[in-house]
Amino acid sequence: MEIIKLKSRPRSGRGKSYNRKARQQGWIPANYYGRNIDAQNIEVNCKEFGAILRAGKGTHLIDLGLSDAEVDSVAIIKEIQRDVLLPGHIEHIDFQHTAMNEEVTVECPIEIVGHPVGVLEEEGVLNHPVQRLTIHCQARYIPEKITVDVSGLHIGESIHVKDLAVENVTFRNSPDEVIASVTHAAKIEEPVVEAAEEGAEGEAVEGEAAGEGAAAAEGDKAEGEKKEKGGEEGA
Fold first, then answer.
1. Same fold across 1-99 and 102-187
2. Whole-angstrom Cα distance, residue 56 to residue 88?
3. pLDDT attached to residue 205
4. Cβ–Cβ under 8 Å, residues 112 and 151
């Protein structure tokens, strides 16, 4: 896996006031710790770190550039704290120092490739609810992504965690967790439209009945007026 360089520096101050000023100047407060090294308060370049996340490389090994003659400063991102109201705003980062032969547990993104037979030929729908998997391996073997080929899936078939095989990597998710599946497309029912049509027909029938009633009333009225006029002429 590629090791990404990230500009960082020791943090010269502490407290909310200092951190707020550092963020305004383009630096994110962070901690750097691990076995065989002293924990350090550092800050990393906001623009460079944002570019790493946007490129989907948050699981890559990162060189913080703090190495000395004895220990390098390669680390993994252990935790990112974000603003509750502004998720795009990063408050703090934890970096864990990692040697190449050290075993670590990290999350790795999934990449779905291929076009399922069940979608192309059987009018099915592809579902892939899981976006990342938790893996355990030596740092040197952390994959950039886990590729899952769904080309052979028919309707009713699925791929589970237990179906995946990545060299030197152990999955920590449930073996039966579904990674991708093809299901029947949902049928679109139109009960509301039918009800509306029935309502329209009912209104038409009622309208016709009302029209017939009004015509009958008009006929009765005309007949009554005719009889009354005839009576007056006879008198």
1. no
2. 15
3. 46
4. no
Chain centroid to CA 57: 17
Domain boundaries, the chain: 1-99, 102-187, 189-227
Q: Name the residue with tokens 């920590």.
A: 172
Considering the domain delimited by 102-187, tell me its CATH architecture: Beta Complex (2.170)
Place of tokens 């004895």: 70
In one letter, which amino acid is 128?
H
pLDDT of residue 186: 81
pLDDT in tens, 89-132: 899 999 999 988 999 999 999 999 999 999 999 999 999 999 99
Report the top-level CATH class of 1-99.
mainly beta
Rounded Cα distance, 119 and 114, in Å: 11
Which residue type occupies 154? Answer: H
